[in-house]
Amino acid sequence: MEELNQLMLLRREKLKKLSEMNVNPYAYVFDQTDYAADVIQNFSEDENKSVSVAGRMMSVRLMGKAAFFHLQDRSGKIQVYIRQDKVGEQNYDLFKLLDIGDLVGVQGSVFKTRTGEISVIAEKFQLLAKSLRPLPVVKEKIEAEERVLYDQFADIEMRYRQRYVDLAVNPEVRHVFILRSKIITAIRKVLDAEDFLEVETPVLQPIYGGAAARPFVTHHNTLDVDLYLRIANELYLKRLIIGGLDRVYEFSKDFRNEGIDRFHNPEFTQMELYIAYKMD
């Protein structure tokens, strides 16, 4: 059984207090209508705009009966200003039980602080998910007009093993995921326009082939036979060509039971396409 450290125990104590306050620490739904980047980009001092944002608390500054915190969603961060006289004493007591890493929802109006930061002043506030593990929060300072980061979550192996933490504390990583999705969408769009047909081929295969690699072996209980996770989808795509589907492609999950490092994963995605009657 995992041994809980002091920070984890403290968060569980806060979770207990939330239950005593009849607060649901894991709400099912919140009416999010706006994203941080859009709120900041579309801000106008001539418009008293109301917004509804939701995301993860990434920093907190308590100042008695008021506080500032940064809320991070998929688009970026925005500052939230919360005051006891605005949200009520009970809700502010709830807020003081929250920690960095908790997911919250905020409804309020947009304004610009005296330092020029576009922020949301909370009129309604809701806890959406209480985090029971502390995040390895990255600290940031501006030194000599340059952005300097401290306490980064930089260990490569940990980042790859805990991608969810990497995404939470290193927002720039999200752009890699978004770019990958857009690249795949673009490839599909080009191939579909050229009259290729996207297909799916078997992942479990009685005879593996299409490349020279060691396979993963599994067993089918009902048929009582050993099967292999595919190392490539080439042979099945060629069978479809034989069957008369002249242009086929597939984004496939393939598996190779060999070495592993940052650039070689036992499970990986590859795309293959085949076309009949063409030399190049």
Q: What's the SSE pattern? A: HHEEEHHEEEEHHHEEEEHEE
Structural class: alpha+beta
Q: Bin the helical content.
A: 25-40%
Strand order of the largest sheet: 1-2-3-5-4
Number of helices: 8
Give the strand tally: 13
Contiguous runs where pLDDT drops below 50 for at least 5 residues: none
What about the largest sheet? Answer: 5 strands, mixed, barrel
Shape: elongated
Mean pLDDT: 90
Based on CA atoms alone, the radius of gyration comes out at 26 Å
Distance between the termini: 59 Å
Characterize this entry briefly:
This protein is an alpha+beta fold. It has helices spanning 6-20, 36-41, 84-87, 89-95, 156-161, 163-169, 174-193, 234-242, and strands at 50-63, 66-73, 76-83, 103-112, 118-129, 139-143, 146-150, 197-198, 204-205, 217-220, 225-229, 247-255, 267-275.
Write the layout of secondary structure elements.
Blueprint: H1 6-20, H2 36-41, E1 50-63, E2 66-73, E3 76-83, H3 84-87, H4 89-95, E4 103-112, E5 118-129, E6 139-143, E7 146-150, H5 156-161, H6 163-169, H7 174-193, E8 197-198, E9 204-205, E10 217-220, E11 225-229, H8 234-242, E12 247-255, E13 267-275
Parallel strand pairs: 3-5, 8-12
Antiparallel strand pairs: 1-2, 1-4, 2-3, 4-5, 6-7, 9-11, 10-11, 12-13
